Amino acid sequence: MAASRGDSPRVVITGSTRGLGRGLAAAFLDLGCRVTVSGRSDNGVRAALAELSARGAGRLHGERCDVSALADVERLWSSACASFGGVDIWVNNAGVSHSYVPFWEVPSQEIEAAVRTNVLGVIFGTRVAVAGMTCQGGGAVFNMEGLGSDGRVQPGTILYGTSKSAVAYFTRAAIRETAGGPVRIGSLHPGMVVTDLLMGPMGRKPEELERARRIFTILADRVETVAPFLASRVLASSGHGDSIRWLTGLKIMARFLAAPFTKRDVLTP
Fold this sequence. Notes:
By secondary structure, the protein is an alpha/beta fold. It is built from nine helices and seven strands.
């Protein structure tokens, strides 16, 4: 059954052993939720649990999960339910990028990893969560969108962008197909967040980082800024098809206008 109004929400976040996912786990714990974290390695899950344990003793669970494997995603659902009695909110956050090079130079294994994780992972996660939440009487699924979701093309990242474009289409279609049912589906738009996902490809080509530094300085934000905003809006959400967006058009315009008069440094640790 879904959590009653007096119970703390039960949240599952895929890809939550590092980056924005781990930041979301911390934010949901700070808001009193019961949280299941997951990642592809047992060591990663153990490290995340150790780091997050002080925020929510008794409200934290972890499970290894490769989101590109349906059996793993089903096990993640079962494990979260066994720990907390059900799942109220499922966040499909897991994602990987690839080398920051023209698409014809990207190694085939990186292409497969991006498509399997970013596309299959969201499809499998949504499938498992919607089926389980329908049986328990309700819940909400949020899919993490990103570069490419709005159709923009960024050279060097078009394979990642293609995967996120697929996620955007799938999410819109899933919202329509589940309309009128007990499960709500929505999307999260974090904007440009300084994580390994953003910096990893750039880090392999420092000259690209320097060219992009000005844009990052204006538009990028740290995990600890974005994650609490997204988590609080997810908990406040009540509509089917809700789109939760951190970096809005107005915010982008205001930052560019203010750039000559302000100094932001989100890239320095």
